[in-house]
């Protein structure tokens, strides 16, 4: 579509000119209508976490219902009244089911969005926070996201050599004539750091300000472009025209009427008869033309936009007919350079196992050149245009998709095909975009990312995340944050399930052994309220591991409760239950009431300590306490509440506890600490080995 030259489109703006237009499509058959149709037909996918949590919840609920029915049967078989047995079974179900899980997931995701907003990424959909952590492919727009969205002069071909702007010499008359052409034959201006006018012309003025002698350092100019223009007034002009691809102005240079011309090289070079080297002007030979065209091809192959410059000394009236018999000065190449942080961000993405793909409306040569500079396009990669993509079947695209690093001159339909192809490979895809034509692909992607500065309202509405700085590096930061959010949610789930499992094992042991119930209903509810919610929330505030981006993206189809995770939960839950059962059996030597109090206290304190174990897979000695004060505050609050229940007589009856001796309190503390010591010891040994 970008190569059509004889079409106008609905909703586009006409800046100037007149035309008689044949209407070829209306309504939903127009290009904008096709985009609306794509938006309506595109369905959003559920996030990997949503799928995992649904599976996890159904399995957990089934298991707990079966267990509670078993406990109810055992209690009735032992002769306990139906109402009491039912009340205990229900209380156990309440304690076993992590009711706080959904709220914890939401709060952790909300805290993640707050952190991302501070890093220039606004999350519109909470579920997108976790999805970012699973992203394995980022399809990124080029202009403004990977690049700076401003034209910059790169190289200058003049006098048969290639120079940087800083290498131009004011004492060289040829260089001075180029600067005259650059500044005087130019309608742009720079004012207080702002560029007014065409970006290509603004870049030429910035080039002028870099020349030694013009640039005096510390932001001072020896001769500003406005002063030069005032000194050498524009006498006549022929404005730039897209048909003839030239612009000309006339000035008095050293009292000699001089016409300066700039434009496309294929047009301007045909109008040149001479070439200048230093102070010498000589006829332009065929070899000179070949050298100039060869240099132009070299610039173009590296993704540079080229302008040619020429002049002639003539007093004739300036018109399109006088733009001939020119003296060639040189070529100036420009490009929209990559953002400095883009190269590092793409490298970080690669290290994190994320494939970055460039999708742009630019020509293939330009796109590939930029992609090489950034590190997206490497040896063995492919680049496809929209037309080449249209020629591929879905099966052929699936075979090539992992080799294609650059897509150029693409349509909205092409972008959706690219997203679909990656998703068929079970990848979680992030797509960036800023235009109306990007909206269907943004909606189709697992994480659509719109540009906050240059983006249209339609693209922002379709996206899950908006970048307020239009910077690719911000996406990588958001991915790291998303991985941290998922890891924290998983750690919180591990904490909840291992703690709940310890209570279940203790109750099951007492029921099978024919012992009194180790907890009463109100104690289970206190455990559920205090030692479930608060530590899990503190775990959700963990800042994350520094090496989070050195890991590969997780498999979106992998179960939340994989074998290593289930083993970890079971082991830790079993260790805590051993301490609780030991405390219960010791207390039984005095009375069932004392046993119940000791079991309740040991379980509560052990789970408060267990919150430190679940903060990370690393030991507490490695992660420390300073980076998560919430865990310390939660531990202090939970311990204070437990102390109030144990040592304030007015609360004994409410929570069905008995006064404990000093020796029994110390036994509770020691037994509660043992599981945490063992778990931390294992982590330290693992770290020393690894």
TrEMBL record:
Subcellular localization, as worded in the UniProt entry: Membrane
Keyword ATP-binding in annotation: yes
Pfam families from the UniProt entry: Cation_ATPase, Cation_ATPase_C, E1-E2_ATPase
Signal peptide: none
Topological relation to the membrane, as annotated: Multi-pass membrane protein
Keyword tags: ATP-binding, Magnesium, Membrane, Metal-binding, Nucleotide-binding, Translocase, Transmembrane, Transmembrane helix
Main location: membrane
Transmembrane segments: 60-79, 85-108, 493-515, 565-586, 629-653, 665-685
Keyword Magnesium: yes
Domain Cation-transporting P-type ATPase C-terminal, residue spans: 516-685
Molecular function terms from GO: ATP binding; ATP hydrolysis activity; metal ion binding; P-type calcium transporter activity
Domain P-type ATPase A residue range list: 4-39
Any one Gene Ontology cellular component term annotated for this protein: plasma membrane
Family (UniProt): Belongs to the cation transport ATPase (P-type) (TC 3.A.3) family. Type IIA subfamily.
Annotated PANTHER family: CATION TRANSPORTING ATPASE (PTHR24093), CATION-TRANSPORTING ATPASE PMA1 (PTHR24093:SF506)
Protein name: E1-E2 ATPase
Organism of origin: Lactobacillus gasseri 224-1
